[in-house]
Amino acid sequence: GHPHPVWRMTSRVPALPRAVVVHVDLDAFYCQVEVGRDPSLQGQPIAVVQYNPFGDLRTILPSEPRIFNDSNGSLIAVSYEARAFGVKRNMRGDEARRQCPELQLVQVPTANGKADLTIYREAGAQVIDILARGGVCERASIDEAYLDVTEEALRRARRDHGRPVLPLNPEQCRVYGPDGVAGCEAWFSTPDWAWSDADELLAHGAAVVAELRHVVQTELGYSCSAGIAHNKLLAKLCSGLHKPQQQTILPESAVQRLLDPLMIAKLRSLGGKLGQQVAQVLGIETVGQLRAVPETRLRTLFGPETGPWLHRMARGQSSDRVQQRTLPKSLGCGKTFRAQNAIRTLQDVQYWLQQIARELAERIGSDRERNQRVPQTMGVGLSSHGDHVSRSCAMPGLSVESIASAGLALVRRWVAERAEWTVTDLYLSACNFRSIAACPSIATFFQSAAGEGGQGTQGLAPPDPRPDSP
DNA sequence: TACTCGGTCACT
DNA sequence: AAGTGACCG
């Protein structure tokens, strides 16, 4: 503890401030978007369903009534009121209704014979625009973002001479402390001399996050949860600790307490086959048990990259930086055609490529208007007999027709190579965006800025030889 | 009849 | 650099 910890030099090497990294997660986001569009749903148990029936799909506009309580589609979002009844994501409509007879099922809008997620995408972009006010902002998905608020936290620490102040809405703020989870009042009333540099920065960062969450709530009406820690791995874990509408700070002193009892699969990127394999090969279940495995053994069993990476994960260490990127890197849309519906003729491939290309062209068009960029590459993806195939080509143009016919050409090439095929998934995507900013000198500026874009204070952290990856 | 429709990243 | 596959929700 020190009144001016940020400036203190403890030795010949200055004490580098740790980054304040935040993971923000909208609460049951699609449900919140639907409640915003139909306030009579407020407070009710609801779920959003994506119904993919046989054959074509009638267009259902966002503005139309979309409550179909007899739907048996898959639930892709479940409100907290409904979760209290045991309704879960990926349940079917009928099972969900058995759990909660009062459940209101809102159908995703449809267009071009397929589900259309535009209203959720646009709502997500509005949230990102607000979060980006707080610091370096990385869009992680339609309803999640990482922030690096180190800069603003440092600014406040200097301004306030240390002394973090209790954030807005303290009842929505938690601290995962060395003595267990607590409300944040006690932690924030730590005497000035007792703050560690790292905790003090987290506390200031948490105030920033509380304010951002408040702005999202008042300007857009959406609640979200957040985790505040020193890296993305821990922030992500933390954001899920207290939901909905709460944020959780993870001081460094509590990292081990959080990780040790945690199932390995709870760590990001270990929720699949690799996590299963790690647990099985080592005969363990928890992160604490993984931490006890010597690095040399992990290296032997999982290789020179994955082994050390697991060793660091078990200690809550991650050097994965928050990127400055509020826009998606690719736009894609597609449709699944289950058993009976599988596509078996090129005619049907052509028909569905046209439908899908309508949506993609529309999205590319609005993206160009809003973000002054156009994709340079497009691709088609499909599944046949459980195999996934993708082919790509230079963007042939931005019209529905050019996208659809280029997609068909790619599929024709693939079809020509085989005797029999059955398409059960069909996707079109666009990526490799280039700026079309009006002024060439501005475009040049952005191109040169992109290489070092928005790393902010992250350069203060010690450099790492490699980015995180399994 | 029913595991959708997006996305990101690493490996080769 | 195109294509594959893992992973997330």
Automatic annotation (TrEMBL):
The organism's superkingdom is given as: Eukaryota
Q: Where is the UmuC domain?
A: 21-271
Q: What is its main location?
A: nucleus
Q: Which PROSITE patterns match?
A: UMUC (PS50173)
Q: What GO biological process terms are annotated to this protein in UniProt?
A: DNA repair; error-prone translesion synthesis; response to UV
GO CC annotations?
nucleus; replication fork; site of double-strand break
- The EC category is transferase
Which cofactors are reported in the record for this sequence? Mg(2+); Mn(2+)
Known catalytic reactions: DNA(n) + a 2'-deoxyribonucleoside 5'-triphosphate = DNA(n+1) + diphosphate
Q: Which residues form a coiled coil?
A: none
The annotated region (Disordered) lies at 450-470
Cellular compartments annotated: Nucleus
EC number(s) on record?
Answer: 2.7.7.7
Q: Does the keyword Ubl conjugation apply?
A: no
What the entry lists under Gene3D superfamilies is as follows:
3.30.70.270, 3.40.1170.60, 5' to 3' exonuclease, C-terminal subdomain, DNA polymerase, Y-family, little finger domain
Q: Mind listing the GO molecular function terms for this protein?
A: damaged DNA binding; DNA-directed DNA polymerase activity; metal ion binding
Q: Identify the keywords attached in UniProt to this record, alphabetized.
A: DNA damage, DNA repair, Magnesium, Metal-binding, Nucleotidyltransferase, Nucleus, Transferase
Q: Which family does it belong to?
A: Belongs to the DNA polymerase type-Y family.
Q: What is this protein called?
A: DNA polymerase eta
Please report the organism this UniProt entry assigns to the protein.
Eutreptiella gymnastica
